[in-house]
Amino acid sequence: MKIFATITTIFLSGMIFSQNSYLFKDPVPSKEHKVEKVESSFFGKYKDEKSMHIYEFNEEGVFINSLNMSSLPKKVVRESSTYTVRDGFIHGVVKGDSLPCVLQKGIYFFGIHNRVRLVYPGSLTTLTKVSTGQYLLNHYENGAYMPVKLSFKGSSLTLSDFDYNQEKTEFDFVENQSSNKSDSQNQIVLAPSVDEFARINNKTHFVKRSSLQELVE
Prior knowledge:
This protein has helices at residues 2-17, 74-79, 194-200, and strands at 19-24, 34-35, 44-47, 54-58, 61-73, 84-86, 89-91, 98-104, 107-119, 126-131, 134-141, 144-153, 156-162, 177-181, 185-190, 206-214.
């Protein structure tokens, strides 16, 4: 009885912890909806107060600007010919530029700006237009795509992440799909038609991550 109980427990645990993971075979809603940039009326920079990232939309595509915090010990700066600190700015970290810095407990802290181009001709990340003011950033992951919804309204931008219940099969209505099962996860790659994706594109499966405000320069 104990052996049977143990086997049953392991079997049930496997069922409980086996979860579904969904990706899309192609950019959604379809390759025909692919664009290189958003409408010019939405050009600008939008700041995410949670992550402090700035999403930038312009004629060249889509960019994300971030501030990566770094540090150098005061002793290293003092003994190095590469770095100098003057009037609250550290020189030598970025070629041809200086960065604001703060000295705390013998360590200089400073932020390095990083600007990454997400969408451009030939990029794996694909931008598609769903409707006026609504776009999808299709991020390429392991041979498939994971979309993030961009919703513009006035001077604000809402980011919404693709979401679902991992313990359910919520997209059985998608006729074209394939799965790859492992011990603890069932990865399902969806290839929905435009109409099938319209059923996925709702508040249940795209959950608001954050709301960004346009920066006035």
